[in-house]
TrEMBL record:
Gene3D superfamilies: HUPs (3.40.50.620), TPP-binding domain (3.40.50.1220). Binds 1 FAD per dimer. GO terms for molecular function: electron transfer activity; flavin adenine dinucleotide binding. Residues 4-186 form the Electron transfer flavoprotein alpha/beta-subunit N-terminal domain. Its cofactor is FAD. The lineage of its organism: Bacteria, Pseudomonadati, Pseudomonadota, Gammaproteobacteria, Lysobacterales. It comes from Rhodanobacter denitrificans. Belongs to the ETF alpha-subunit/FixB family. This is Electron transfer flavoprotein subunit alpha. Keywords: Electron transport, FAD, Flavoprotein, Transport.
Amino acid sequence: MSKVLVIAEHLGGKLNSSTARAVSAAAAVKGEAIDVLVLADSVDAIAAEAAKIDGVSRVLTVAGPENAHPLAAVLAPQIAKVATGYSHVFVPSTTFGKDVAPRVAALLGVAQVSDVMSVEGAHTFKRPIYAGNAIITVEANPAHAVVATIRSASWPAAATGASNAPVEALAPDIALPAHTRFVELKQGASDRPDLQSASKVVSGGRGVGSKENFDIIFKFADKIGAAVGASRAAVDAGYVPSDLQVGQTGKIIAPELYIAIGISGAIQHLTGIKDAGTIVAINKDSEAPIFEVADFGLVGDLFKLIPDIENAID
């Protein structure tokens, strides 16, 4: 019978919503148990959050100063040790998960399944390939554990609040590598919603024209309480930092509302928003590919249209 181990992602003592999405994927396996593993220096608050996610059987914790920062080289051996007896190990397909999961798979001697967007059976999954232009069905060997990253944008977050799973502390007996050490974390501070979890996102592209002009995107996003994103072209042009990039080589998101401003709609970008609820495009080129996927489109000068929209909101 299947038993799924979900690796919790957290930052600053708070659980990331991607963990609840990975639990939804674990529930689709229809196994006998779903356990969440929390590795941190201080685990209590994070474990308490994880215990409230519906469907979670147990929360397992490994506490220690070596887990104060999410270093894949340090976490992976511990995860592999705890994973003994589990049929599946699920990790969110975020920067954290893409860093940790390959090491866990290598330590367990299995091939990783990446970006799972659908569970067809206990060992059969669907995932996107070719920049999302095709969906492939992957069948894992049932004789071995499945290590998979879960495409967060394709799964709803499991409900929280109704459950209160037991918490169990573990102390795996394993020698940890000493060749990797934490130096520092540089993290941009913002009062805006987080790009990967926001329900509304406003993104700007090359059509915005300059770094200075991008202020119109920030102001519009602030007016409607949205996160800010950007196309790769805007990032490459230096309009905004790379952590705002949406697309195949950036962040994969699934907001309820996505507004693309001055974005032509390259395949790489569309891959990052394919699971968005409603897509609105604003572009002066009526032939731009973004209009093929948009639910609503406005053709015209963004520097005239956005103020008009803001006035309508006011």
